Amino acid sequence: MAGLSGILEWAFLVPLLMVISFVVVGLAGTRLKRLEYGGWIAVLFAGAALVVGVLVAAAEMLSPGQYVNVQYTWFQLPPAAGTFPNGFRLVAGTLVDPISALMLLVVTVVGFLVMLYSIEYMHHDRGLARYYAELSLFLAAMTGLVIANNLFEFFLFWELVGVCSYFLIGFYYEKPSAASAAKEAFLVTRVGDVMFLLGIFLYFYTYALAGPGNGWAASGFVFTNGNQPFLAGAMGGNSTLLTVAGIMILGGAAGKSAQFPLHVWLPDAMEGPTTVSALIHAATMVAAGVYLLAVTSLFLGFTATDQLLIVAIGGFTTFFAATMAVVHSDIKRVIAYSTISQLGYMVLAVGAGFAMVGLFHLFTHAFFKALLFLAAGSVIHAIGTQDLFKMGGLRKPMRITAAAFAIGGLALAGIPPFAGFWSKDDILGGVYSQLGTHPLYWPFFLLAFAAVFLTAYYIFRAWFLAFSGDGPRDPTLPHAHEGSWVMQVPLIGLSALAVGSGLLIFWPNFQSLLLNGAGAAGIPPVFGPTDLALSGISVTLGVAGILLAWRLWGNGRVYVLPESSWAQPVRRLLLNRYYFKVGYDWIGQRGVYSVARAADFVDQFVIDGTVHGFERMFAALSERLRRIQSGVVSDYAAYVVAGLIAVFVLLLLVAPYLVTLVGGA
Amino acid sequence: MLPLISLILATLVLGTVATFFAGARSRWVALATSVVFLLEVAVLFVNYSGWPGYNGALVPGFSESESYSWIHLSWLQINYTVGVDGISLVMILLTAILQIATVIYSWAEERRPAAYFGLVLLTCLGSFGVFVALDILLFFLFWEAVLVPMFFLIGFWGGPRRRYAALKFFVYTHVASIVMLVGLLALVFYSGASSFDFSSVYAAARSLAPVPQTFLFLALFFGFGVKFPMVPFHTWLPDAHVEAPTGGSVLLAGLLLKLGGYGLIRWAVEVLPNGFHVSQPILFFIAFLSIVWGSVLSLSQRDLKRLVAYSSINHMGIVLLAIALDSSLGLIAAVLLMFAHGIVSGLLFMTSGSVHHTFGSRDIPAIGGITPTTPALSTMIMVGSLASLGLPALISFPAEFTALLATWNGLGYWVFVPLGILVVTAAFYLWMMQRMLFGPPKGVPIGAHDVPWYEGVGMGILVAFTVLFGVLPGLLVNVIVSSPIKGWPGP
Amino acid sequence: MTDLPLVGFIGLSAALLAIGLFGILTRRNFILLLIAIEIAMNATILNFVYFAAYTGGTAGLTGQSIAVVLVGFAATEVAVGLAIVLALNRLKGTINVAQATELKL
């Protein structure tokens, strides 16, 4: 099968196909009513992209290796004095290596299934041409990002991913809440993007400063394995710069992957269609952040301080987000918080030095999270509400959906042999093995461990609320029914993946997708027999969580926290999401906007006021001066004579004095 | 060889004169002139001898240069000297694009169309002249020639406070011009240059002592800086933009502001390196001030045009910062940014003009949810806003990326100021889009329909270039780096 | 001809100029004003003639010719002035310059 590796050169076809789909659907979609306004065309293109993606992954599985191909020079500066004495080049090219093949597989699989599912789910909405065009561009940007071969190109697609999610979150733009959520998502991630940008500068700069980096600048800053050893050696003197660079990259990833404290946008992003949520949460937007961290750690490297910070952010976020998921009643929001929490695990893994394990979790998570969202979408499509407390007893009319959600939930809770177990326990085992690195690893490891229990609890709380019991708690809801094959195929397909994708790790060919020349250590599965105890504890915690959920919410029970309970303030705190959104809104409105209003006042009344002051001064002066123009000839003659005398005085008396003053001849 | 630049000048002069006298057919004459102009600029590009790969070598110096003796006295040598290098070529391309887009956009102008189109062409003629002039007097004549038509465009076709705005614009820029003229004349006579030509002034002035260079530089900087505009001499800009007709706004933001940047690069930074180095802190201070002030003020604006005008102050602040860095990367970034801002702000001013035509108001809080009514206009506003806030694959991004990279290389952590302001810039554009484009419809008159074809085409041209150069910025960078500045082309 | 008394002649023309200026500044009657202007002007002409003679030779010819031109000027000026006087008298019924303020803004 050596011939298959030829496909690697054609990996750029994936984003290209989706761009073509974007252009075709965007231009002609409104006229294609019979094709779901271009929806079927987008499905077709996504299918073609899926085929290419699978072929690329297969080729990488059979012969793992890196393939760099610079296709296009973005722009190039000739050698000139300055920071980049050998010139400077920015390129757009592809780098297909095992991890990008893995990501390509995830994105195209989930993208295709979501696209197919949309055909029925979105059928009754308006603006479908726009929807499918934007979805196509979204996939194009994400797949482009995955195979980008340098940080600049990476950032380019990164921003495109951001703007596509902006448009898709704001798809129902007539709703003020959707428009606001879209803006929030863009703005919060923008904070991260700005940090990412500085991170890029810092890497470019530090490499260019040290001798060998010059060649790197001239070649377009392409990711190569040589960079990391170089970093360890030559950059020793510049570790502060590199630490800051790593922090900046972490900031960018935190914005995109909704890590604390830039997590606020993701729950609000639920304003978009459920299909978009599935895509954002599983394969595209938030995955980009983790992928960035993984790529950076593999090719550029983090300093020890960076790693500690990444572990801290990731570990804290797992627990922090899980607590918020416990109390919310909106089915999509519960899943959204679980995404933040799970992304925390991936970030944690990268921070502990197990980038490949993090990516493995991203891989499995993509399937079971997409499954959960599409199952939730199936429920919402059937009964038209997202409020868990109005649902109930949906198990009977929606057997497939109930089973799918349960499978997704088991995978999320980390119950073997479902997919989540293998990847999550690998992360926990990996971090456990690194606990000796720094004492501060301990608390974050424990937080991540505690989050396992919460995760199992909140996802089964949602399942019991929606599916168990005798019937809906809100009798006005329409009669539930299962969707057609178009919606069922993605559910079944993803269910299979949610069960089986974790077991793939024992298939050597799949393992080679998680090989990477740079990070030879830490290839999953990392845990061995010694970690079996750890797995036992985490599985026990997961089962305990499920049991608690069953005890409180099972069989249609509704657990109401007593008003006098000590936990009420905690509940309020969690329902208000730790007041983060309130705080950010306050900074925006009271802080920045007030400053802007004050500045406007200064601009109008101080700066322009000064201008108008001059205007009035000259006007008053001229009002005085014009009086000397009496119209009487003799007066004018007198002025002439006075002027003459003044000239004489100046010439004969003042000028010589001035000359002696400055000591001239 | 064909005197290409003189030919273009002749085309523009003839076209302008013909437009003034063409009466009802003036728009056709103006369009024909613009098309010919664009074609000639294309020829200029193709012929450009500094093009990398052309004849296998980079030719330093000015291309297409022509020089004829004009006024020769024993103590005064004034020539008609013109020529282009990469920087002026990019600016000329901007002029041609904006001219044709403006003419098409204003197709339905009903009040004295002949005079309107004539003045539009005259503004472009003057700008073109500024970009090709390599003689101080010629430069100054063209510089002032831009001022007059813009004054009339604002003063006659403008909004309710047009007289105030036109006068303010004129007084501000004219005072600046006078200071600049003094500086330019001193440049010749104090340095003892043999003629008013760029080459001789360049040779003579570079060797001056730092102190006189500093004074000269500051005089020139003030003259160019008011055009930029630099805070605190910026308040003419929002007023002029708000009152100017759409075509006037487009040219004002797209071309007139660029004259300041171009002039600073051509006649001050390169000619007076020592004075420039001494003044660098002042430039940095003003640049940061403009960046922060423009962006923060945009956030508090209610009028769409004022918002875009203040964002122009912010963007031109970044241009000033990039120039002040005194690095090759910074200069490239400055020129790219000027080009990008010319296209994008032109687009945004066109959209705000269309908003005004369609909805009878530009008050952002008063209008809402216009997307279902005017999808095309909405799309244009989105493209313009996203381009302006630096979205990749649109033209501003490579420019801003380079500018910020250069800022990091030159100033280190000070880069946090423009970087942080990027968030504010995103905030005011996104907030504007949220209030105006999205949400339930509000303030939409009955029977409102999407933009007419000519406005759509005018904006479409700019959108096309926004995407084209956003995807292929190398086309511009290759031209810019072949300029005879900062030691390019390198060893 | 350098034996001409310098101070005397310059003093004479200075005195004439002073008298003329005094008249210009104090008189309100247009005709008296014209006469004063003539006196002041004659001081100038006298200076030209005197310095022409003082310099002598061909170089002095310049001064003499200017003096002749100035005499012509003075005549035209008086002619125009008197015409204005007549017009003013017809318009206002007076030849007091203080009342002719039409050119004021």
Offer a concise description of the structure.
By secondary structure, chain A is mainly α.
Number of strands of chain A: 2
Domain module count of chain C: 1
- Please give the order of strands in the largest beta sheet of chain A: 1-2
Computed Rg of chain A: 32 Å
Based on secondary structure, the structural category of chain A is mainly alpha
Shape of chain C: elongated
**Residue fraction in strands of chain C:** under 5%
**What is the annotated CATH architecture of chain C?**
Orthogonal Bundle
Q: How many H/I helical runs of chain C?
A: 3
Order of helices and strands of chain A: HHEEHHHHHHHHHHHHHHHHHHHHHH
Radius of gyration of chain C: 17 Å
Helix content of chain C: over 70%
Number of strands of chain C: 0
Which protein chains make the most extensive interface, counting residues with beta carbons within 8 Å of the other chain's beta carbons? A-B, 56 and 59 residues
Contiguous low-pLDDT stretches of chain C (5 residues minimum) are none
Head-to-tail CA distance between termini of chain C: 53 Å
Largest sheet of chain A: 2 strands, antiparallel
User: How many distinct helices of chain A?
Assistant: 24
Mean pLDDT of chain C: 86
Mean of all residue-level pLDDT scores of chain A: 82
Can you tell me about this structure?
In chain A, 68% of the residues lie in helices and 3% in strands. Chain A has helices spanning 13-28, 39-62, 98-121, 128-146, 151-169, 176-209, 213-219, 227-234, 239-256, 265-268, 274-282, 285-299, 304-327, 331-351, 355-383, 399-413, 419-433, 441-467, 485-500, 508-511, 532-553, 568-575, 580-625, 633-662; strands at residues 67-77, 88-96. With 491 residues, chain B is mainly alpha-helical. Chain B has one domain. Chain B has 18 helices and two strands. Chain B has helices at residues 4-21, 26-47, 86-105, 113-132, 136-157, 162-191, 198-205, 210-227, 236-243, 246-269, 273-299, 304-324, 328-359, 375-388, 396-411, 416-436, 453-471, 474-480, and strands at residues 63-72, 77-84. Chain B has a two-stranded antiparallel ribbon with strand order 1-2. The longest helix of chain C is centred in the C-terminal third of the chain and has 34 residues, at 59-92. Chain C is elongated. Chain C has helices at residues 6-26, 30-55, 59-92. By secondary structure, chain C is mostly helical. Chain C has a single domain, classed as Helix Hairpins, CATH 1.10.287. Classes of the chains: A mainly alpha (665), B mainly alpha (491), C mainly alpha (105). At the A-B interface, strand 1, helix 5, helix 6 and helix 23 of A face helix 11, helix 13, helix 15, helix 16 and helix 18 of B.
